[in-house]
Design a protein that fits this description.
- The complex is a heterodimer of chains A (296) and B (329).
- Chain A is 74% helix and 3% strand.
- By secondary structure, chain A is mostly helical.
- Chain A has a two-stranded antiparallel sheet.
- The radius of gyration of chain A is 19 Å and the shape is globular.
- Chain B has 329 residues and is an all-alpha fold.
- In chain B, 74% of the residues lie in helices and 1% in strands.
- In chain B, strands 1-2 form a two-stranded antiparallel sheet.
- In chain B, α11 packs across α13.
- Classes of the chains: A mainly alpha (296), B mainly alpha (329).
- The interface between A and B is large, with 46 and 44 residues.
């Protein structure tokens, strides 16, 4: 039982880290733009699939392919913002029914574009992805792979770097200012439109990074990401939509809880359970467990 | 052009469309074409059910395929294991889906709007999908339930493509008629007020919850009906009915056609079924084409194709009356 427990804990940490990276992207975009991005899961899929494709067709090593893919998907995010969401913001600005609502529908529709495009471009098969790192250590009976360790290190460093970026750098502070008070930031000389581009870039890159990290451990396929999206929502909603550190805490807890559930209760109903918990949390505490302000 | 002449032209066009729709199985005689006719009528009911919720409440439900699927499974179970006549099983499907819609709608709408509602409905949809995939005893697992009966009424059995088409068409006509009646009612006015300005509507005593939840439940019941219609036509039901593919199809029909009208979603259904058949492209190409189309429609033509076309017609033939566009709610 102890060995099983250690194994599941390790697996839980892995999915917790992936979930942290994924959800940080989700909360970042929501924080800056008040947009709930229903296409975040599609960008995650795109990260994994592009990495595989670049690795395969250009013969590049995994790490390089991953970097190209993460940057590329970030740019896809900027493209979505420029082509689809900004024109809509201008158009709907005068309507009472609101931009947020139209943006929500548009991101949902964009996820269909990305998924359908990916199936057409890549074919629906599942791909094994070679992460280029091998070796296994045994810790307390759990098989800890070098690949998994790489995932944890890269994921943790990325999220920490982002945290520092938002706390310390001028650009990060400008983005937070744009998030807190659009008019005020604009008066202080912050270019709001550019901040939105940066937010989409970072958010898309984080989604892609999560996909890139998980790909060598499971697989890449053009239908992945839909359930991750909902789990990501579960995290963000529980954390209260705006709290960065809350997101990490909830993501790690949910990852570990999910792994333990899979081991000791039922693999099939693991996600059903997680979504159920999310719905209950959402209904009981609409501002989340760590939320402060009302976000509606 | 005078108003009378315009009404005359509209009546002639409507009659011609009605005649074409009724004669369709005798104009399009191949097995495949008749199959597509059935599918368009069934999809019409499906599209109306989602268009009703989105058009009336202005809220997005991204778990609508769950109610279609619940209706499909309920009807299949009722006819397979309870040996209920299929037409009665359709009613059971409506009741089960409607009840689920009532509960989900009440729980979700009493607390959430907008993005929270979207998240809750997406999660609900995936939960129902996972349950259908894994609850073998009731749903038959990944393979689903097979060998479903065709509906029959007295001596008439709706087995052939043509007869099923008329059955589905009759149901579509009833649904469309009933929904169009709601637009002028007190309920329709209240919903229109709520959609335009919830706070203001509240201040004059209109309770949003009651109207939103009832719209959600009615839309869900109709979704269940369309699911039942579909599975007894296909004579099987599987978790595929609960997948995002159906959500995509429904959103495409509603967004393309126009969600706030009766005719719009039906036009959307006809487009979704017939355009791919006429183009003859592969399923995945076709899915990409439609997703790009709706991605352009949402920002640039938010009312959909039908209202845009109706506006164009009015510009071409200006008349004094402008009440010909039937709005829901």
């Amino acid at each position: 039982v102890t060995a099983g427990l250690a194994e599941q804990l390790w697996l839980g940490i892995l999915s917790g880290v992936v979930l942290s990276v994924f959800s940080t992207g989700l909360v970042l975009l929501f924080g800056v733009m008040r947009v709930v991005n229903m296409a975040h899961g599609a960008l995650y899929m795109l990260g994994a699939m592009l990495t595989y494709q670049i690795q395969k067709s250009a013969g590049l090593p995994f790490g390089l392919a991953a970097v190209i893919s993460v940057v590329g998907v970030g740019l896809v995010g900027v493209l979505l913002n420029r082509v689809a969401l900004q024109p809509m913001e201008k158009r709907h600005a005068t309507r009472l029914s609101g931009t947020a609502s139209a943006a929500l529908l548009e991101t949902m529709v964009l996820s269909f574009v990305i998924y359908n495009g990916a199936v057409l471009a890549f074919g629906p098969e599942t791909r094994r992805v070679d992460g280029g790192v091998s070796g296994t250590f045994h810790v307390l009976g759990a098989a800890v792979t070098a690949q998994g360790l790489t995932l944890v290190v890269v994921g943790a460093v990325s999220v920490a770097a982002l945290h520092v970026f938002f706390r310390r750098s001028m650009l990060g502070k400008s983005m937070r200012a744009a998030a807190d008070n659009r008019t005020g930031a604009s008066l202080a000389g912050v270019d709001i439109g550019r901040m939105y581009d940066y937010a989409w870039f970072l958010s898309g890159a984080l989604a892609a990074l999560a996909g890139v990290l998980i790909a060598p451990l499971s697989a890449a396929q053009p239908t992945m990401g839909q359930e991750t999206l909902i789990t990501g929502f579960a995290v963000v909603v529980a954390a209260g939509l705006t709290s960065f550190s809350g997101v990490i805490v909830v993501a790690m807890a949910l990852g570990i809880l999910g792994a333990l559930l899979a081991q000791f209760v039922s693999t099939y109903y693991q996600e059903v359970f997680i979504f159920g918990v999310m719905i209950v949390v959402l209904l009981a505490r609409p501002n989340g467990l760590f939320g402060r302000e009302t976000a509606s | 052009v005078s108003a009378t002449a315009r009404r005359g032209i509209a009546a002639v066009v409507a009659l011609a469309v009605a005649a074409l729709v009724l004669a369709a199985p005798y104009l399009l005689t191949s097995f495949e074409q008749r199959g597509l006719l059935v599918t368009s009528a069934v999809y019409g009911v499906m599209a109306l059910s989602l268009g009703f919720i989105m058009g009336q409440t202005g809220q997005w439900s991204f778990g609508h395929q769950a109610f279609v699927g619940i209706g499909g499974y309920a009807s299949a179970q009722a006819s397979l294991n309870l040996h209920v006549p299929v037409l009665l099983a359709f009613v059971i499907a409506m009741l089960v889906s409607g009840l689920c819609g009532l509960v989900v709608g009440y729980v979700a709408l009493s607390r959430t709007r907008g993005m929270y509602l979207a998240i809750v409905t997406v999660a609900f949809g995936v939960m129902v999908y996972l349950v259908a995939l894994n609850w073998y005893q009731v749903t038959g697992g990944p393979l689903g339930l097979l060998d479903l009966e065709s509906p029959s009424l007295g001596p008439v059995s709706f087995v052939s493509e043509t007869s099923y088409y008329y059955l589905a068409l009759a149901i579509l006509a009833i649904v469309a008629f009933v929904l169009s009646r709601t637009s002028d009612s007190r309920r329709g006015l209240a919903l229109r007020a709520l959609r335009n300005n919830e706070a203001l509507a509240r201040s004059v005593g209109i309770s949003p919850l009651r109207y939103y939840v009832s719209s959600f439940a009615i839309g869900s019941a109709l979704a269940g009906l369309s699911g039942a219609l579909l599975v007894h036509y296909l004579s099987s039901v599987s978790p595929a009915l609960l997948s995002f593919d159906y959500l995509f199809i429904m959103l495409t029909m509603v967004i393309l056609g126009g969600m706030a009208t009766i005719v719009g979603p039906i036009v959307g259904a006809v487009i979704v079924v017939w355009v791919p058949a006429l183009l003859g492209v592969s399923d995945s190409t076709n899915a990409l084409i439609f997703s790009v189309m709706i991605a352009l429609v949402v920002p640039f033509m938010p009312d959909g194709l039908y209202p845009a076309a109706a506006r164009l017609m009015r510009r071409v033939m200006p008349g004094r009356d402008t009440g010909s566009e039937a709005r829901v709610g």
